[in-house]
């Protein structure tokens, strides 16, 4: 059976293999210390032996720099030291040098050189070289690219127990690269890699059990595999565990457990976990509520490229949530998010440019960002742009475009747009007055608490529709709670037109409307 390069190196050292030139003199202390895992002594002894031009010491010291075991990890020094024994035909150095040519470490990537050294090492029985040579053959940039040969070499390494090769082989079966697609072989090989402790195989297997895409859905198995992966340093698995416990998907919802996993993942630089942890601090779920801690997590997530975090950091600076207000920083973060096509940020930065809040007023940038936000489906942006087209402020008036955007906003649930469209139906703005449609639209807006709509609706019931004084009074009553215009006087006028029975009904209905459809400050 083939062996790993580092296993071979230890064996060669132990036997004073002829692969390594000479075993006496200055290098003997280097070899002895390395064999006994006395890396501190080995490092100094091998450094001294290298000065005496010992290729054996160069190989040992190079491997120490390559792995970071007994020496600071330094691939450039490793590359320099391993070049000489590799040129002399040491397959141990050939493999490590080949890896660095393939990975572009310490030197520019050179697939031809990588394959040259790896294929030579492979012929000498290095199982890891089979794996890496296979990766080179699978690379479409390689002049001798060959998926079938790459598959065969990867399979050879996998069959010899290389966990990384088993994971790669699983992907090849899944994608049908170098072989036919084989979902069953994909799962079986993935399970084999996971059984060898390959942490990313554990993550992948967790995904499979969670989704049930290629194996029977099993949340317990998903949790087990994610947990094993997380405990082996795969922080993305910790994030996924956090999400499962936060949402209760496949497990009993537990915010404390979710927060613990998010903290682990955040400590492993998973930006999405930082964002989720920020949300938990913000709401006090699983952790003590802290707007300051929430902001810090959002800021960390933003520094890791989480676009939604850009928006929340911008809002935090805008409103002073967990941090001191800073309109300039707010605008900077919002524009950063908007540049990543975040619709909410596009709208918010548009408003900043309109009002000169944190930036200089710029009508052109206002309209540009507003259009982007509207096209992204942001309801308030669609409404605002519709009104801009109707008013002709900073742009040529265009009723057709204006009402198209307002209709889009209305269809997406905007009560403000319902109010404007209701007025248009009431006044016959499209060429025909439509009282029935006006009532329908204004009722939607009135129920959302828009005082203008409540007053208009009351007026329609009072003057435009017969036998609707009860509704007229009820809406005048509701809007009078906002001291809107002359609503109090209008309510009393309508009351005088009704009999006692209708007055009682109207009073009860008005009180009901005032509670259920509480008016807010007048909207545009």
For CATH, the homologous superfamily of the domain at 1-125 is named as: Tetratricopeptide repeat domain
Structural class: mainly alpha
Proportion in β-strands: under 5%
> Mind describing the biggest β-sheet?
none
Q: What does this 3D model show about the protein?
A:
The chain has 524 residues and is an all-alpha fold. It has a domain at 1-125: Tetratricopeptide repeat domain (Serine Threonine Protein Phosphatase 5, Tetratricopeptide repeat, Alpha Horseshoe). The protein contains 29 helices and no strands. The protein has helices at 5-15, 27-35, 39-51, 55-67, 75-87, 91-103, 111-123, 127-138, 147-159, 163-175, 183-195, 199-211, 219-231, 235-247, 255-267, 271-283, 291-303, 307-319, 327-338, 343-355, 363-375, 379-391, 399-411, 415-427, 435-447, 451-463, 469-480, 487-496, 500-516. Helix 5 packs across helix 6 (91-103), helix 27 (469-480) packs antiparallel against helix 28 (487-496) and helix 27 (469-480) crosses helix 29. It is elongated and about 115 Å long.
